[in-house]
Amino acid sequence: MSISHDLWTLALVLYLAAVITDMVDGPVARHLDIDSAWGGLLDHGSDAFFVIVGLTALSLHLEVTLILPVLIGLAFLQYVFDSGAHLGEHLIASQLGRYNGIAYFALIGLMLGAEGLPMLEPIKGPMIIVYWLLSLSTLLSIFDRWRGRTKLRKLNS
């Protein structure tokens, strides 16, 4: 909502709150010994929801294709089902998926900054390149997970 109404300061504050709470929740859960497979699914699901909604709003605002948010949604669903998280198993992340997850958050921060902070406006052009590189990387992550799952099925047959 803040993005669609050009409330960039509010959007940046909400973004920072989301990043800080995301960085804190896992260590706190582990410290209190209350982490679980369902908690991990909820954590990763809220991260996926945040980046999908954020990138969708920013894409619509910047008139960029919605391919990245769609790919993130597909990658997350694949991640959940391949890990067996929908059955209560712990999520199994890939290295590329972890890097992509961090990059999604970083891209949102840069896009918000470029809109809300005049000093960052010159990075708008390069951000579109990063957007497309992340789209490609997400597609590669989906393919890599699919290929790994296919190999595992062949070994189990």
Task: Write a concise keyword list for the protein shown above.
single chain; mainly alpha
Question: Could you characterize what this model shows?
Answer:
The chain has 157 residues and is mainly alpha-helical. Helices cover 78% and strands 0% of the residues. The protein has one domain. The protein is globular. The relative contact order is 0.12.
Order of helices and strands: HHHHH
Gyration radius, rounded: 17 Å
Please count the helical segments.
Answer: 5
Fraction of residues in β-strands = under 5%
Number of strands: 0
Largest sheet: none
From the spread of the alpha carbons, the general shape counts as: globular
Number of domains: 1
Helix and strand content put the structural class at mainly alpha
Helix residue percentage:
over 70%
Mean of the pLDDT scores? 88
Measured between the Cα atoms of the first and last residue, the distance is 49 Å
Low-confidence stretches: none
Strands, helices and their partners?
Elements: H1 8-31, H2 37-62, H3 67-83, H4 95-116, H5 124-156
Helix pairs in contact: 1-2, 1-4, 2-3, 2-4, 3-5, 4-5
